[in-house]
Design a protein that fits this description.
Chain A has 376 residues and is α+β, with helices and mostly antiparallel strands. In chain A, 20% of the residues lie in helices and 16% in strands. Chain A folds into four domains: 101 residues, Ubiquitin-like (UB roll) (Roll); 114 residues, Alpha-Beta Plaits, CATH 3.30.70; 88 residues, no CATH class; 39 residues, no CATH class. In chain A, strand 6 and strand 7 form a beta hairpin. Chain A is globular, with a radius of gyration of 23 Å. Chain C is of the alpha+beta class and 165 residues long. Classes of the chains: A alpha+beta (376), B alpha/beta (455), C alpha+beta (165).
Chain lengths: 376, 455, 165
């Protein structure tokens, strides 16, 4: 009994005490057991390390991609020694008094640049024909943290595309081996049928023998995939994500929460996904019935436009639910707007303010622009 | 003649078998421990001995043991790491083949100290015949009351099991080994938690190398203090060195960390010099992962002092001019060997052995291998050398487990010390296909200026 | 032929499972796969792996993941005699390249191939921990060390003679 009493005493003490952590010189207080990454997310903005494999809703995820490496310049108040190596912020828990450097550390930025290069080494860069383009974490990562060219001069590894079931396409060549889909199958379904096969550079996601994934929740592997390795066969090649309008919708579902995003054009539902937060993680997982079988507007109660970050390419279609970004430049220039070096509209017909891209049928061609919205 | 504690009885006919081992003082240490010592006293002796992990990292064993969490009602495990796979290393194999009872006695004492009642020997799968030797020895130890229930009336129970791997260097990393022992892919775990808290089946676990656990026997026999007197500084006791490459007498030697590198290579007691009267070009003194050194920096440190076969002396100069004791895999290259080719061979090894879990190692090891292939095959560019340097730099320290470092260091050290040879390959692609760069100046005495700069 | 261990081998499997605590029978996977490979023609077919999965009450994908990770498991049929020749650093310093070339010439196959008569498969492998006795290869359970051309000839002849019996 004495042991039990002590335990509850220590739990109580822990509940009261918050750890003070500093990330890029910005202080934040978090509960013990919080990871550096989640502490940074609490601060928000640029100090949040990018994460390609960590997924807060999947137990055991993280630590593999190494994009979230940060420098711990002070371990804690009790033991101020710095950590000898960069650490994966998604899997390292904070200590009281810890000081972390992310974007203020040249060492971190250099290592991250290296990691991005490694991740892109064998990536096909087939964004123009990839359904994930426009909502791809790897695309964003390489724009923000990568270099403009690769130094890799060898043949890239390729795999055959395979259908794993009626609804999911596996394009392994694009995979960055984040293991998220494996954790998803492990934790959301009762029998995992796909996994990581082979070793090292030859590792691949697969079922080994041709096997279709069949489970009420397996479609979630599409949403957790940070790249275009797992895509929705019911929406494949139907439309570019930035030509579609995402709307929040729901339905009564006996299997899942039924809260989704419909990707629409006019009244047509092209794709159904779970709702994702600003870190690209789904808010709640959805079932395959909602995702693959309810493709008509009448199946759903539409709530309204989905909020989309203005930095997302999806907002380029003059989409109404755009977050107004925090205008740093304007602020630092004492309220003046930055002067554009060139007016893009004078040289390009694309993205004219008056053109509504979502009205174009199918992929847009330059000849389509004059035809719509009365623009001649 | 150096003092021997592990192999002192290796020459005795039949020492592999229980009766002969017992007759020659075997299980005396176990007897002493079970009759007169508490687990903490054993740990204390090991701490006093200064014994450092013989697998490669050189972490103090007693300290590692003291980290083991001991929650009530949760089993603790000792796992013996016999997944000897570091190129150049074959010492544990020798111990297990010839002195299996020494290992079992060491396991018994260590399990007692740690309070582990179930102990596993995880042996690399390719050593397919050794489990039979070990299992026979375990059976004999059981028969004679050294394993099983209530060992020698002490109330302590222990069973030892042998588990074979199936071909994966990475399983020598302790958390990958644990994963493999759990029947999974050998993917290293992300630490913390460390095995001492959550190891095998999420229970507190200590993983120690074969040689480390065998060394516990003489430590108990002669006492920790006496053991600590052997050697120099923090390099206490004796160390098994497996010598290979271009040597007259390759093999496993026990050294008492007081001899010089030169003596080890050239003396008749040890490796007996280099065959065919050739000259020494380079050496990797501690298994393929540690930095390669040219002859002039191997025999003498940059300060001009004689380099000794100790943890500290081999490390003297750090990465710029030193190397490491590592696992004791001592690889010697003679004047006719090509460093580029040898580095390529090691790069290919690490590429083959990368588990593929984290991106820098998965992608970087293959990249280094391909660039090295180009240089070796006369298709290299000068910029490739800098590219290699940059790739290894971006792998090192950024991976989940030390395999990334192990893959990066050989490339880094080869470029650091043998850049001329890489450049010669690039500039003379055709000539490089016909003959080697040779000894070049790598055995010349270090110029005073360079030596001073290196310090 | 249905994949099925003999009574004796099934007892061996039970003995292996008993090495681990209750409920941890997945730990037996690697040893049982070795046993299966030995028993069912030197390689692991999908059928064999499914059988092992059922024996250990784990999912087939857990077996595939492990079988494809470790280099000792053959996922395709191999010859009666599998020559696994080491080519890593220390062996290379002692002329393993020449030995590999000689075996290729002698058997008329490349690394990874099997002779037409299904007798020999040549595989180049990475360090087997016999660096002091280089060059070397693994043949079945044992190592053949200090290889020379003559020694290779002798080993091939021994295999042929053994197979003839």
């Amino acid at each position: 009994m004495a042991f039990r009493g002590m335990q509850s005493f220590s739990t109580m003490a822990e509940e009261k005490k918050l750890f003070k952590v500093t990330i890029d010189n910005i202080p934040v207080e978090v509960e013990p057991g919080t990871t550096i990454l989640n502490a940074a997310r609490k601060i928000g903005g640029d100090v949040v390390p990018p994460a390609m494999c960590y997924y807060s809703k999947l137990q055991g995820s993280g630590g593999k991609c190494r994009t979230c490496l940060v420098k711990v310049s002070k371990g804690s108040d009790a033991d101020p020694r710095p950590m000898p190596k960069l650490v994966a912020s998604c899997r390292t828990t904070v200590m009281d008094g810890m000081e972390v450097a992310n974007i203020t550390s040249p060492e971190v930025l250099d290592a991250r640049k290296g990691v991005v290069e490694f991740l892109l080494l064998n990536h096909p860069l087939d964004c123009p024909v990839c359904d994930q383009a426009g909502e791809c974490d790897l695309q964003d990562l390489s724009y923000e943290h990568g270099t403009e060219a690769t130094r890799y001069e060898f043949k890239r590894r390729t795999f055959e595309k395979i259908d794993i079931g009626d609804h999911i396409k596996l394009h392994m060549t694009r995979c960055i081996l984040c293991y998220r889909c494996v954790f998803t199958a492990d934790q959301l379904t009762n029998k995992r049928e796909h996994g990581v096969l082979n070793r090292g550079e030859a590792s691949e996601i697969g079922t080994y023998i041709k096997n279709s994934l069949d489970n009420d929740f397996i479609g979630n592997v599409i949403d957790v995939c940070p790249v275009g390795a797992l895509t929705d066969r019911t929406a494949r090649f139907k439309n570019r994500v930035w030509f579609l309008k995402p709307v929040d919708a729901h339905r009564d579902c006996d299997k899942c929460c039924g809260k989704t995003v419909l990707w629409m054009r006019g009244d047509e539902v092209f794709r159904v996904t779970a709702r994702k937060d600003k870190y690209g993680e789904v808010e709640e997982f959805i079932c395959d019935t909602c995702r693959f079988e309810k493709k008509e507007a009448k199946d759903w109660v539409v709530e309204g436009p989905r909020k989309v970050s203005r930095h997302s390419v999806i907002s380029q279609g003059h989409y109404v639910g755009v977050h107004k970004p925090h205008e740093t430049i304007r602020e630092v220039m004492s309220g003046r707007d930055p002067k554009l070096l060139m007016n893009i509209h004078s040289v390009s017909e694309v993205n004219q303010p008056s053109v509504d891209l979502s009205k174009i049928d199918g992929p847009a061609h330059s000849t389509d622009f004059p035809k719509i919205n009365g623009v001649q | 003649m150096g003092r021997k504690l592990l192999l002192d009885k290796a020459h005795i006919e039949g020492i592999r078998y229980y009766d002969v081992y017992r007759k020659n003082g075997g299980y005396a240490a176990a007897e002493k421990v079970l009759k007169n010592m508490s687990p903490d006293q054993v740990t204390e002796e090991v701490k006093k001995s200064g014994l450092r992990g013989r697998g490669g990292a050189g972490f103090p064993t007693g300290l590692k043991w003291s980290f083991l969490a001991k929650p009530e009602g949760v089993p603790r495990y000792l796992v013996c790491n016999a997944d000897e796979s570091e190129p150049g290393t074959f010492k544990d194999r020798y111990l297990m083949e010839f002195l299996p009872h020494l290992l079992i006695e060491g396991l018994l004492i260590s399990s007692f100290a740690l309070g582990a009642n179930r102990t596993y020997i995880y042996i690399r799968g390719e050593y397919a015949w050794i489990p039979d030797i070990l299992e026979e020895a375990i059976k004999d130890a059981h028969k004679n009351g050294w394993l099983g229930k209530n060992i020698q009336g002490s109330g302590f129970d222990l069973d030892i099991y042998v588990q074979r791997g199936a071909g994966a260097y990475i399983c020598g990393e302790e958390t990958a080994l644990i994963e493999s022992l759990e029947g999974k892919r050998g993917n290293p775990r992300i630490k913390p938690p460390f095995p001492a808290v959550k190891g095998l089946w999420q229970c507190p676990t200590v993983v120690n190398n074969v040689e480390t656990l065998a060394a516990v026997v003489p430590i108990i026999n002669i006492g920790g203090d006496e053991y600590a007197k052997i050697g120099i500084g923090k390099s206490t006791g004796t160390k098994l060195i497996s010598a290979c490459g271009n040597l007259n007498k390759p093999g496993v030697y026990e050294i008492d960390m007081t001899i010089s590198v030169e003596e080890f290579i050239y003396s008749e007691e040890y490796c007996g010099g280099i065959p065919d009267g050739k000259r020494l070009k380079a050496c990797i003194p501690g298994g393929s992962s540690v930095p390669i050194l040219p002859a002039n920096l191997l025999l003498k440190t940059a300060k001009g002092e004689q380099r000794m076969m100790t943890y500290e002396s081999l490390n003297d100069g750090g990465f710029p001019t030193g190397s490491m004791m590592g696992s004791g895999g001592f690889i010697v290259l003679d004047e006719d060997q090509c460093v580029v080719r040898h580095t390529l061979s090691l790069a290919r090894f690490y590429h083959h052995e990368s588990c593929g879990q984290c991106s820098p190692c998965r992608e970087g090891t293959g990249w280094m291998k391909r660039v090295l292939q180009n240089i070796e095959n006369g298709k290299g560019k000068m910029s490739d050398i800098d590219l290699l340097w940059d790739i290894q730099r971006k792998i090192e320290g950024n991976t989940i487990c030390p395999l990334g470092d192990a893959a990066a260091w050989p490339v880094a050290a080869a470029i650091r010390h043998f850049r001329d040879e890489f450049e010669w390959h690039v500039n003379n692609p055709e000539e490089a296909q016909r003959h080697n760069f040779g000894l070049a100046h790598y055995a010349d005495p270090l110029p005073v200026v360079a030596a001073a700069a290196a310090v | 032929m249905a994949v099925q261990f003999s009574e004796e081998k099934l007892n061996k499997v039970k003995e292996i499972i008993a090495r681990y605590p209750e409920g941890k029978q997945k730990s037996a996977l690697i040893p049982v796969l070795h046993l299966a490979q030995e028993s069912f023609g030197g390689w692991l077919s999908a059928e064999t792996m499914d059988y092992v999965a059922a024996l250990l009450q784990i999912t087939p994908i857990e077996v595939y993941e492990v079988a494809t990770f470790y280099s000792m498991y053959n996922l395709k049929p191999v010859g009666k005699y599998l020559f696994e020749v080491c080519q890593t650093g220390p062996c290379m310093l002692n002329g393993s390249d020449n030995i590999i070339a000689y075996i290729k010439e002698k058997l008329g196959i490349e690394a990874g191939e099997t002779t037409a008569d299904g007798m020999f498969t040549l595989k180049t492998v990475e360090c087997l921990g016999a660096c002091g006795y280089a060059p070397m290869m693994q043949l079945g359970k044992f190592y053949k060390e200090h290889l020379t051309r003559e020694r290779v000839d002798q080993i091939i002849a021994e295999c042929r003679a053994q197979a003839g019996n």
